[in-house]
């Protein structure tokens, strides 16, 4: 009989509106070997990502903002150590981080850096100098090169600059790939009249990067909102084929490259979804951006996303067994009752290449009678995405405290049954007050779990 977190009702509070709020610890099994580490003090910390060393699942690197920051482990997540020297010295702000680790164990930390944003959500109007950069570590994230490498940069503020946003870095670590060692970055470019997806590759361990090319066949609207292109993600098969997805406001768009990122097929919408942005009570920004993962030997593709086709927000996964030509009917990942009014959101998907198990991490509010306080849930599929078992990764909910920003993405990575997840939470301690306003008060947490290999 599997162990479960005992169902528990007994914490009842009166909210400011007078409504009584009950917290129920759902009878979800605890993720095996679950360990949770808090790696920051309370502050303005969000926008997380994580990567695992393909040579050794005990080694991983997590990244987050503000600024561009990193932490590493060499003991399977028992301890995490913050790294020094990752933030760029020549820009005021650095964020939207992502991370990849290549087949040598070298770490590549990608982020945007700038001085000031443009008009809210209309980033290409009035933005300052900035760009996309990569910093490298050759010792598992302990130390980092002094200078970052430039992917694309606008070094002087002037009218008409585009805004480069949300870069996502991927490393080809596949043993049989003719492009093993290549690094790939895809991102949104906000222009005054449109959004496009740009792409660049490096064939020399991130020292130089190709001239960015547009890989989106159809442009999106120019605002960071529904209708704009958003959420580039990529996955690489055993033969080096690169698969990429993003959202165009109506559904998930898909493209492939079979020549190491030199050329791409015409991008096309393959899965219809609800819009990628949605309102979530007590969160300043909610999204269901798609993510892609692959079982590298069979080329089975997994795409995850969140949407509200059932009224409340759920997490879904669809798979493809024919390299993206056709896709399965979506599987609902969260296993609480449909139409129960409880939201699940901010998902991320990965596949353990050692045994093909698929994992999805997400925030989950099923235990809160008012649909406010989430826990973090890890879901696992061992039948090619047809069904998922949900596990409680955290067993204590947190209060987001009125529309705090927790970022646009979380992260998950897996190898040999070892799973790492990273996310932001609102700290449950009083926030500082600065100039009469409540300061941001978030923390970054990393969860680990250990599943037996199948």
Shape: globular
Mean pLDDT: 93
CATH class: Mainly Beta
Gyration radius over CA: 21 Å
CATH architecture: 6 Propeller
Task: Give helix % range.
Answer: under 10%
Structural class: mainly beta
Query: Could you name the CATH topology?
Result: Neuraminidase
Major sheet size, sense and barrel closure: 4 strands, antiparallel
Strand content: over 45%
Low-confidence stretches: 1-11
Terminal CA distance: 19 Å
In words, what does this structure look like?
This protein has no helices and 34 strands. It has a single domain, classed as Neuraminidase, CATH 2.120.10.10. The chain is 0% helix and 46% strand. The strands form ten sheets. A four-stranded antiparallel beta sheet has the order 3-34-31-30, with no helix packed on it. It has a four-stranded antiparallel beta sheet with strand order 4-5-6-7, with no helix packed on it. A four-stranded antiparallel beta sheet has the order 8-9-10-11, with no helix packed on it. It is mainly beta and 454 residues long. β13 and β14 form a beta hairpin.
């Amino acid at each position: 009989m599997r162990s479960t977190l005992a169902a528990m009702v007994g914490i009842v509070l009166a909210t400011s509106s007078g409504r009584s709020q009950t917290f129920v610890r759902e009878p979800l099994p605890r993720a095996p070997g679950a360990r949770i580490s808090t790696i920051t003090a309370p502050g303005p910390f969000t926008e997380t990502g994580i990567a695992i060393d393909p040579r050794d699942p005990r080694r991983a690197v997590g990244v987050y903002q503000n600024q561009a920051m990193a932490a590493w482990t060499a003991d399977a997540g028992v301890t995490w150590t913050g790294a020094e020297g990752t933030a760029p010295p020549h820009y005021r702000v650095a964020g939207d981080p992502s991370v990849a680790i290549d087949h040598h164990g070298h770490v590549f930390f990608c982020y945007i850096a700038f001085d000031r944003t443009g008009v809210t959500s209309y980033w290409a109007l009035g933005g300052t100098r900035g760009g996309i950069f990569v910093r490298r570590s050759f010792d598992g994230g302990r130390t980092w090169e002094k200078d970052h490498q430039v992917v694309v940069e606008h070094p002087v503020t002037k009218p008409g600059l585009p805004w480069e946003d949300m870069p996502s870095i991927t490393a080809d670590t596949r043993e049989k790939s003719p492009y093993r060692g290549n690094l790939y970055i895809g991102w949104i470019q906000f222009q005054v009249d449109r959004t496009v997806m740009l792409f660049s590759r490096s064939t020399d361990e991130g020292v130089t990067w190709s001239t960015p090319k547009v890989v989106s066949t159809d442009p999106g609207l120019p605002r960071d909102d529904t209708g704009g292109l958003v959420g580039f993600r990529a996955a690489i098969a055993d033969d080096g084929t690169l698969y990429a997805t993003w959202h165009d406001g109506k559904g998930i768009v898909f493209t492939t490259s079979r020549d190491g990122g030199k050329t791409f097929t015409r991008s096309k919408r393959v899965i219809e979804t609800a819009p990628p942005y949605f309102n979530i009570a007590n969160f300043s920004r909610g999204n269901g951006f798609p993510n892609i993962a692959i079982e590298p030997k069979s080329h089975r593709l997994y795409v995850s996303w969140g949407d509200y086709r059932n009224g409340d927000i759920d997490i879904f996964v669809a798979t493809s067994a024919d390299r993206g030509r056709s896709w399965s009917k979506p599987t609902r990942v969260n296993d609480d009752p449909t139409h129960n009014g409880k939201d699940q959101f901010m998902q991320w998907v990965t596949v353990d290449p050692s045994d093909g198990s698929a994992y999805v991490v997400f925030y989950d509010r099923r235990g809160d009678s008012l649909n406010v306080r989430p826990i973090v849930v890890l879901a696992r599929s061992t039948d090619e995405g047809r069904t998922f078992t949900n596990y409680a990764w955290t067993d204590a909910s947190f209060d987001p405290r009125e529309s705090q920003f927790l970022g646009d993405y979380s992260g998950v990575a897996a190898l040999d049954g070892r799973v790492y997840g990273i996310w932001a939470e609102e700290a449950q301690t009083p926030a500082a007050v600065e100039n009469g306003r409540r300061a941001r008060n978030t923390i970054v947490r990393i969860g680990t779990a250990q599943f037996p290999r199948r």
